[in-house]
Amino acid sequence: xxxxxxxxxxxxxxxxxxxxxxxxxxxxxxxxxxxxxxxxxxxxxxxxxxxxxxxxxxxxxxxxxxxxxxxxxxxxxxxxxxxxxxxxxxxxxxxxxxxxxxxxxxxxxxxxxxxxxxxxxxxxxxxxxxxxxxxxxxxxxxxxxxxxxxxxxxxxxxxxxxxxxxxxxxxxxxxxxxxxxxxxxxxxxxxxxxxxxxxxxxxxxxxxxxxxxxxxxxxxxxxxxxxxxxxxxxxxxxxxxxxxxxxxxxxxxxxxxxx
Length: 259
Known about the structure:
Layout: H1 10-33, H2 63-67, H3 81-100, H4 106-126, H5 131-152, H6 156-183, H7 192-228, H8 241-256
């Protein structure tokens, strides 16, 4: 477990959690709108059931869901669990970054965590990893690595980041090609290799290996849960690898920082 930052005050953690919940509210809108090819930045938030535009009090992260008991006040339709998951997850990322991120990497940990949260939920819900979001993940990682190199006056981190990106993409791309040749069909989503490549920019080659191992454990645990719940698992069962990668990458970044 990452070491707790002793300089952090409770009020700072609360402020980070509130900021995270607000960011999570935006991520929830993206989770609902992106699969429908709707704009995330324009248009008022509205109930998915009746289309009623939401007023200010209905947009307060977490509190509005609790006050409305998870339902629209106009039509009684359930508010999607994805919205609540984004707001809770966003708050946890904000607080967790302040509490556990290594010195100088608190903001980077927040940016990484919020991006991974949205990608994880999109893959979990829709088996979809938008290429644009993966590009943003890679771009922000590159910016963080470049900033570190600039302020530290060293370039070794640049080569480490590029090695992580190459290893991450290449590893999953090779596995997917071997599976395709052996089984005659795709066994992995096209978005998984780019995602691990983007993660590699943040965590480096060693981090990529750790993320793969962690994702495998998460995937096995998910399969066990499915078996216990008597859900059928066979060669056609699709498990969201991107979700497993994202869920593992952020704690590893907190533990080791940039690769």
